[in-house]
Amino acid sequence: MKKTSLLFIAGLWSSLGYAQQKTIDQKVDSVLNLMTLEEKAGQLNQYSGRNVTGPVHERNVNMLDEIRKGHVGSMLNVKGAKVTREIQQEAMKTRLKIPLLFGLDVIHGYRVTFPIPLAEAASWDLDAIKLSAQVSAREAAAAGLHWTFAPMVDISRDPRWGRVMEGAGEDPYLGSLIAKARVEGLQGKGFGDLQAILACAKHFAAYGAALAGRDYNSVDISKRALWEIYLPPFKAAVDAGAATFMNSFNDINGIPATGNKYLQRDILKDKWGFNGIIVSDWGSITEMTAHGYAKDLKHATQLAITAGNDMDMESRGYRKHLVELVQEGKISIADVDNAVRRVLRKKFELGLFQDPYRYSNEKREKQELNADKNRQAAKEVAKKSIVLLKNETQILPISKTVKKLALIGPLAKSNKDMKGFWSVEWENDELVSLYDGVKSKLGKNTDILYAQGCNINDTITSGFAEALKVAQQADVVVMAVGETFDMSGEAKSRSDIHIPGVQEKLIQAIQETGKPVVVLIMAGRPLVFNYTANHVKSILYTWWLGSEAGHAMADVLFGDYNPSGKLPMTFPRSVGQIPLFYNYYNTGRPPLKNDTRYKSAYLDIPNTPQFAFGHGLSYTTFKYADLVLNKSEMNLNDTITVSVNITNTGKYDGEEVVQLYLKDEVAQPIRPVQELKDFQKINLKAGESKNLTFKIERSKLSFYDDDLNYITQPGDFKLMIGSASNDIRLEQKFTLR
Ligand code: GLC
């Protein structure tokens, strides 16, 4: 091993730090040239702290000893200014004093929990989504963290897959804009800024297309589907400057993502020019043996580094086999050096070589975590994430002067469930339940009655009697039903996505009392709730709204906020319809309104969803008028300007997400019946009108042909403007010459 005095190293880092004229890459090379092969392997090894988020392969490692020996480049699941400082101090005892990176799954908030990402996607409010990421980054950075394994940008069309809660839904266009907003929110003003942390676009790629919605299952899709549906949000993340990527557990057409050169080198690093870090998912290197793709961990290690995987999260393959694989000539030192450069570059960019402890500041941590401004931000985002599915007899909003209000259901008083899956540093008493929110909203003159009625997921109905008694006494009943927070998330696939247990039976019992009933459904995924959808007049989908859940729900229930959310995923009538999505192909035998004989249809259920992509109501109504295209023909270098007038025709101020869809009428290969190509979320006072403008340019008309050329074909297009994918208000045709 090269002997290098600590004095020399200390002098070197400080000289590097101050020699601003040296570029980051020159500094990186200065360090790389000092490193032994073993130290290089160490930089590519990431261990977890005690709080594990995956299967533990071996426990008998002395982490601090490993760190001191220079065998660790990054730790995950270590958090807090004090602890990260202590662990970083161990890294400063290594020969070269290369600082550690601390990473954690800050998916929707660190101490203040924001709505789950799928809920935020329902806001269609990119500023709100960016704000959520900014606050999450600020708190995480104050807690000593450099890196979050977010945003998860996996498109999914299958609500059986529990991780839909973590993404932005089924649409590549919306998903791409949200990926950009989240990366920009997390990385803020750029590295070096103490509120910026490394974002991580995951899981690369197509993890959301798992067969049968079963987590970690195989993915079998065409390359065209890969490029058209699943890759766009990742490209958006690269364009937004995402510092890191995480690959995925799944195989794609028989090649595990972690060992997939096409994905990691050909597309991400070469075609897209990504110069950040690709980290494996937890154990996904070693799992290539289970896939049957590698014969053992050493072989899996060789396949992973060669395919472009830079850092090894908890397979320990790089720690154990990288050195010998280089010595045996089975992998190139160039691949190892390239990976190490990527890691060192991020450490320089974060300023960790100059000050390894700059993020580990207990005073700043104390000031930042759970700060009122952070909670206020969480409440604002939560309100915008709520979707009004039905309000047929305008029970909502409920008057604040209501005399007797009954809160019924297993989630009415739950604090812990409000956090959803992937919450981090929450305290139960910092999570506001629906009951807490309603109580703090309504004055003394409202009698709030309560009954749990039933549990979430069993067959016990003995609580119905009490619930019925409470309902009978009330003027209005608000019910809170759904899943538990951990019935969606990682490894939480469900073959049956009905609202679990006897909750719909309870809803039916209460509904049949004839009282005005509002049902709030809380979940991390689209659920099936046929009785409720067909019989209850007012339904709000509130997902998991985080720390300020109860206050946000109360604001909507009593009209202090007019709900504005729109579904980012299709809600099926039955799990048997899945995969069911809005941008489908018409087929050669589309069902006719009243004739499904010999058509692409079921005998027992319509093809249409229970609630469509883009659906969401308001307490007010909006009129769409005067759709005007400045021309009806365009050529490839042209732009068509579209204008439309929207009027708030109700008595409440409110927001509307005006959606623009296109259909390429005839194309080879065929194009979907509609594709979201633009939207604007606008705020209109009661009676107010606003003229909106959209631009149609080539990028909105292009698609991949079978040879993966990104093409545009002349022909007719149908332009649709509406309030949902199945609520098109205005249409017009135009032609691409
Ligand atoms: C998990 C997840 C991944 C997460 C990682 C670290 O298995 O798949 O999203 O970032 O491990 O917790």
TrEMBL record:
Reactions that this protein is recorded to catalyse: Hydrolysis of terminal, non-reducing beta-D-glucosyl residues with release of beta-D-glucose
PROSITE patterns listed in its UniProt record: GLYCOSYL_HYDROL_F3
Domain Fibronectin type III-like: from-to ranges: 656-725
GO molecular function, one term: beta-glucosidase activity
Pfam families: Fn3-like (PF14310), Glyco_hydro_3 (PF00933), Glyco_hydro_3_C (PF01915)
Alphabetically ordered keywords of this record: Glycosidase, Hydrolase, Periplasm, Signal
EC number annotated for this UniProt entry: 3.2.1.21
Chief subcellular location: periplasm
Localization of this protein: Periplasm
Record-stated family: Belongs to the glycosyl hydrolase 3 family.
Protein name: Periplasmic beta-glucosidase
Organism, scientific name: Pedobacter aquae
